[in-house]
């Protein structure tokens, strides 16, 4: 088999693996992602009460322990959405995410692997700086898909997921309306904020996953056990997602389509400044735990699928028998 064929075969494997992992992962955690978007998009009001209650009922350790003891720990935001719109409401915008998740994850993973291969010198292991650089490149390249995808999801959630008796309109409607008003570039509103978040996340995630996964490699097989790879993906995703939350909050606010806050922010710095001055510094980490709960299983599943090798199994099945 030629070198070109081998590369093509590996690329096909990555596409299938990324597609499978993305669809499985987003199907499992999408309701949590919708809750995160809803909570992030609603600023603190003048009396410091949120439109939706926080993830936890309590605001300090004592009340949290008391709440836990009384079995009142609950996801109020998700419960309210479910009561208003049913199960369909918890998956509002899912089709957009499912459609774009394949190219997004494929670009992210393929670009990172490609840059790692280009930066690596023969038999020398990649340095931390090289892995961070590859991650930054992957986070940058995925923007072409990530920005319009998240913009459409946020518009659907903020305009239909938080009100009573509001029709759940299609993502196509939001896309056409945006293009009609602001041309095709309107779909890339919040690109700078998204770039900040994705680059920051990828610069942490890829080196951290590589480090954790390498710690479990066997000297005999030069491969980490399945459970170690899975946990490495979960841990790296949780840490990276948690730390990138402030950037995610800013991105969500800028892309929000809620008429009440339309054109309220003039860029990343202006948005950060207004949140800090008009609300509370804690707002930046408001959904950090919830975001970690969304990201961790997503990337755990991603690494699990790559470990199993679904892409290789599918391609071998499709090969004609001699």
Automatic annotation (TrEMBL):
Belongs to the mitochondrial carrier (TC 2.A.29) family. Its main location: mitochondrion. GO terms for biological process: malate-aspartate shuttle. GO terms for molecular function: L-aspartate transmembrane transporter activity; L-glutamate transmembrane transporter activity. PANTHER family: AT03939P-RELATED (PTHR45678:SF5), MITOCHONDRIAL 2-OXODICARBOXYLATE CARRIER 1-RELATED (PTHR45678). This is Mitochondrial carrier protein. It comes from the Eukaryota.
């Amino acid at each position: 088999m030629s070198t070109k064929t081998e590369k093509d075969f590996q690329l096909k494997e990555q596409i299938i693996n990324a597609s499978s992992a993305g669809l499985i992962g987003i199907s499992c955690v999408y309701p949590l992602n919708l809750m995160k978007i809803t909570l992030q998009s609603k600023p603190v009001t003048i009396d410091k009460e949120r439109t939706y209650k926080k993830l936890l009922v309590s605001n300090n350790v004592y009340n949290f322990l008391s709440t836990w003891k009384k079995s009142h720990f609950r996801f109020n935001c998700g419960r309210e959405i479910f009561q208003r719109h049913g199960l369909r409401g918890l998956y509002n915008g899912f089709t957009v995410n499912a459609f774009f998740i394949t190219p997004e994850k494929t670009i992210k993973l393929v670009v990172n692997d490609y840059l790692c291969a280009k930066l690596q010198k023969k038999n020398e292991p990649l340095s931390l700086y090289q892995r961070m650089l590859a991650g930054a490149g992957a986070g940058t390249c995925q923007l072409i898909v990530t920005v319009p995808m998240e913009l459409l999801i946020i518009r659907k959630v903020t305009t239909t997921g938080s009100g009573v008796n509001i029709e759940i309109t299609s993502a196509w409607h939001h896309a056409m309306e945006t293009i009609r008003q602001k041309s095709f570039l309107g779909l890339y509103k919040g690109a700078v904020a998204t770039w900040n978040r994705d680059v920051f996340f990828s610069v942490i995630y890829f080196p951290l996953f590589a480090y954790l996964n390498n710690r479990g490699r066997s000297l005999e097989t030069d491969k980490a056990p399945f459970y170690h790879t899975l946990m490495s993906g979960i841990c790296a995703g949780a840490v990276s997602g948690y730390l990138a939350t402030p950037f995610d909050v800013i991105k969500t606010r800028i892309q929000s389509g809620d008429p009440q806050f339309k054109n309220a922010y003039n860029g990343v710095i202006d948005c950060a400044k207004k949140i800090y001055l008009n609300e509370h510094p804690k707002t930046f980490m408001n959904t950090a735990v919830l975001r970690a709960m969304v990201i961790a299983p997503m990337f755990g599943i991603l690494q699990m699928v790559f470990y199993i090798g679904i892409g290789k199994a599918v391609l071998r099945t499709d090969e004609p028998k001699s």
